[in-house]
Amino acid sequence: MNSATISDLRKTGWLHRFACPVVLLLPLLATTPVLSEAPGWEDARMEATDRTETERNRETVRRAFEAWANGESVFNDLLADDVVWTIHGSDPVAGTYQGRDDFVERAAAPLASRLQTPITPLVHAIWAEGDAVIVRFDGSATTSSGTPYRNQFVWIFRMEGEVVVRAEAFLDLAAYREVIDNNEPG
């Protein structure tokens, strides 16, 4: 626009009527959260939060399994006191356990007491999405009679605050039962 045109706009009052309200609105427009009004912004924020939660949960489980593989006891740190643990299958050990102590006493301790060595996990994969983490691993140990114990596991966790609050376990219950039936507690 040349200066003659601007001068003409001033004479007609157009510049004053339209430019002044825009100038007055600039501070308001500058402080308006434009992103919050954009379509999909809430979804993008939720996806970022989900990614953060997903990575935090995956890392918590990865660190726990790494510590377990190095001989550390991890169940007290990884499992909530009131974890609900379900072992799927048709063996008498299959069922739902209410709380960490119930699970350890009735499912884990009977097996562990018949092993000379702790189970060593070999993790094949960890998948995570939000509060869900799935771990596919093999476990091996030596029984109290000196024979090898090997099993394959899939554990599905629901996490809250970096601890497992619900767990589902899939494993070869025949291998579990063989150790229980053929080995004396140590």
TrEMBL record:
Transmembrane segments: none annotated. Pfam families: SnoaL_2. Coiled coil: none annotated. Residues 61-166 form the SnoaL-like domain. It comes from Kineobactrum salinum. InterPro entries: NTF2-like_dom_sf, SnoaL-like. This is Nuclear transport factor 2 family protein.
